[in-house]
Amino acid sequence: MKNMLSEEEAMMPMVAQGSHCTHVITVTSGKGGVGKTNVVANLAVELSRAGKRVLVLDADLGLGNIDVLLGLVPLYTLEHVLRGSHHLSDIIIQGPAGIQVLPAGSGLPQLTSLTDSQKLLLQTELEHVADAVDVLLIDTGAGVSPTVTYFASAAQETIVVVSSEPTSLTDAYALIKVLCRQHRERRFKVLVNMVKSQRDATLTFRKLDAAADRFLNINLEYLGYVPFDDYLPMAVLQQKAVTDCFQSAPASRAFVQLAKEIAAWPDPQLPKSTVQFLWRQLIHTS
Fold first, then answer.
1. Where are the beta strands (DSSP E) in the chain?
2. Distance between CA 188 and CA 209 in Å, rounded?
3. Whole-angstrom Cα distance, residue 267 to residue 192?
């Protein structure tokens, strides 16, 4: 009788064949308007300057805009891959500082509900480019939708971006709660964005951490903060990373330091150590 392997066992030979480990980092938030995509764009640029090969995946499927933020004009998007007219390597576009961007497309509701065959195609295509990447930065949508939680639970590291607004903290806690209770995630890094001072950032983090400790029995990790900076919207208008336009701006210095810290993180460990595993997690969860 033919020996039947479980889905997890069937993955293992593929995972074990290569020694290269792609560091998968999801950047997410409980609500929009906290500067999450700006964080991803600037982190990607500075991680590349720190010597990492960086691929940015715009996982806000159907409403992606990181290409717009960076002034990029993709000829093709994930829609073309799913149609079968192009390979994933055909649609990856070059961004500033040598980063690569995988555009999701905008105004494409069909991307938010993929068929099984489309999911398999996407998984297979991504496996072909995994070995060329040191860091995969995933920019999710905001909120607690299944797509957001899938990406967050499949990555090795989840960075939750918050601001000092009460609604941001409430929604961030809701996202962490869903990931903790429904997906058994217990490790989260918190980046406080758009605050006036280190004191404000610390107070904001402590509020969120206290709630997580009391009601979820988990401790969050403070990753740092990016100060409120008038140079940021000026860079957005120029469709460039703030670190490219205004290198001495307070936000730029914060992103440079943050990227150095992330670049020094230890190599990921199996099983969450490959892009292939992330996508298998995503497409087989229902």
1. 23-29, 54-59, 93-94, 100-102, 135-142, 157-162, 189-195, 221-227
2. 10
3. 25
Residue type, 152: A
As assigned by CATH, the class of the 22-284 domain is: alpha beta
Does residue 96 contact residue 70 with C-beta atoms inside 8 Å?
yes
Q: CA 185 to CA 181: how far, in whole Å?
A: 8
**Matching residue, tokens 């990921």:** 268
Q: How far apart are CA 56 and CA 280, in angstroms?
A: 18
Looking at the chain, the number of H-run helices and the number of E-run strands are 13, 8
Contact 56, 67 (CB under 8 A): no
Task: Answer whether 0.90 is exceeded by the pTM.
Answer: no
User: For residue 257, what are the contacts with CB-CB under 8 A and spacing of at least 6?
Assistant: 224
- The tens digit of pLDDT for each residue in 193-244 reads 999 999 999 999 999 999 999 999 999 999 999 999 999 999 999 999 999 9
